[in-house]
């Protein structure tokens, strides 16, 4: 079986899928710092996190 894999930095548009993924991983393994409650962020909170992160990156350029 062959898979194509793309690894890239998450973007604001990925917020909902990222929250879903982290919540799923939190119950599938004990080898993360997440507990069974998951990431404890809403999609909107994750979007704001990424927007603020991008703003900080832009500010660091000046």
Descriptive report:
Helix content is 52%, strand content 0%. It is an all-alpha fold and 62 residues long. The mean pLDDT is 89.
In short:
By secondary structure, the protein is mainly α.
For the record, the count of structural domains works out to 1
Radius of gyration: 14 Å
Considering DSSP H and I runs of 4 or more, what fraction of the residues is helical?
Answer: 40-55%
Query: SSE string, helix = H, strand = E?
Result: HH
Taking the sheet with the most strands, its summary is: none
Low-confidence stretches: none
> What share of the residues does DSSP label as strand, in percent?
under 5%
Average pLDDT, rounded to a whole number, is 89
Number of helices: 2
The assigned structural class equals mainly alpha
**CA-based shape:** extended
Distance between the termini: 47 Å
Keywords: Transferase
Organism: Streptococcus mitis
Protein name: Acetyltransferase
GO molecular function, one term: transferase activity
Give a topology summary:
Blueprint: H1 15-28, H2 43-60
Helix pairs in contact: 1-2
